[in-house]
């Protein structure tokens, strides 16, 4: 679990709630963490970075060519982002030519460890990527309205709407969303079912609704 604060400082969860966060050198505006430990981020200048601090590098961030405003990493090989014009890019797994443009327009995107990808556009419409199944129409519109979306896996998809309401995917496209109590401005979902969110005040919450009260 990783996050950035309003000053673009970067934090990594320690797995110890009594002292939960360790500051990581650097400055980022958005960050995405995969189930395998992969971490990518973008800064205020839309520059893209991949975390290499676990590999002994003197600089914990490797700069990757390109320009993005939002990024998410489901795994080392499933990294997606959107740029300031809402264009969609997928990582090629080759740093020398890192990005392939995917048809469509999104303002936020979420990528899961299993290859699942969802996104929302500037109008709040929700889409699930199907380009690996139907190249002619790579995005399937899903009923609902969200401004932020997060994907841990095919069965762990969460979102937040413009009013701050929180929704979890039901795994049924006919009735896709269930409202979860609380308000948020951004949300994150893990492959193991974990979900975290932050509210407009910067307060941090971890979901425990799937555990006995």
Which terms would index this structure?
single chain; about 210 residues; mainly beta; four-stranded antiparallel β-sheet; Beta-propeller repeat TECPR; Beta-propeller_rpt_TECPR; Tectonin_beta-prop; lectin
Tell me, rounded to a whole number, the average pLDDT.
96
The coarse overall form would be globular
Proportion of residues in extended strands? over 45%
**End-to-end distance:** 23 Å
Task: Name the structural class.
Answer: mainly beta
Report the total helices: 0
Question: Biggest sheet, in brief?
Answer: 4 strands, antiparallel
User: Considering DSSP H and I runs of 4 or more, what fraction of the residues is helical?
Assistant: under 10%
Radius of gyration: 16 Å
- β-strand number: 22
Provide the low-confidence segments as ranges.
none
In spatial order, strands of the major sheet run 4-5-6-7
List SSEs in N-to-C order: EEEEEEEEEEEEEEEEEEEEEE
Describe this structure in words.
This protein has 213 residues and is mostly beta strands. It has strands spanning 2-4, 10-13, 21-24, 30-33, 39-42, 48-51, 61-64, 70-75, 78-82, 88-91, 99-102, 108-111, 117-120, 126-129, 139-142, 148-153, 156-160, 165-169, 177-183, 186-189, 195-198, 204-206. The strands form 6 sheets. The chain has a 4-stranded antiparallel β-sheet with strand order 4-5-6-7, with no helix packed on it. Strands 8-9-10-11 form a 4-stranded antiparallel β-sheet, with no helix packed on it. It is globular, with a radius of gyration of 16 Å. The two termini are 23 Å apart.
């Amino acid at each position: 679990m990783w996050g950035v604060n309003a000053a673009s400082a970067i934090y990594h969860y320690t797995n110890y709630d009594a002292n939960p966060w360790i500051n990581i050198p650097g400055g980022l505006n958005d960050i995405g963490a995969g189930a395998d430990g992969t971490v990518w981020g973008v800064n205020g200048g839309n520059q893209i970075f991949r975390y290499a601090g676990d590999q002994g590098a003197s600089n914990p961030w490797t700069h990757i060519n390109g320009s993005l405003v939002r990024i998410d990493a489901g795994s080392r090989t499933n990294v997606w982002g959107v740029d300031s014009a809402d264009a969609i890019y997928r990582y090629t797994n080759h740093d020398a030519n890192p990005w392939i443009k995917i048809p469509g327009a999104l303002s936020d995107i979420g990528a899961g460890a299993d290859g699942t990808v969802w996104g929302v556009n500037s109008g709040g419409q929700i889409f699930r990527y199907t380009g690996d199944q139907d190249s002619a129409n790579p995005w399937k519109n899903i009923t609902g309205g969200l401004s932020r979306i997060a994907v841990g896996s095919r069965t762990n998809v969460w979102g937040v709407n413009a009013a701050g309401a929180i929704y979890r995917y039901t795994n049924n496209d006919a009735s896709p969303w269930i409202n979860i109590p609380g308000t948020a401005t951004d949300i994150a979902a893990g492959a193991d079912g974990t979900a975290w969110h932050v509210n407009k005040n910067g307060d941090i919450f971890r979901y425990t609704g799937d555990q006995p009260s």
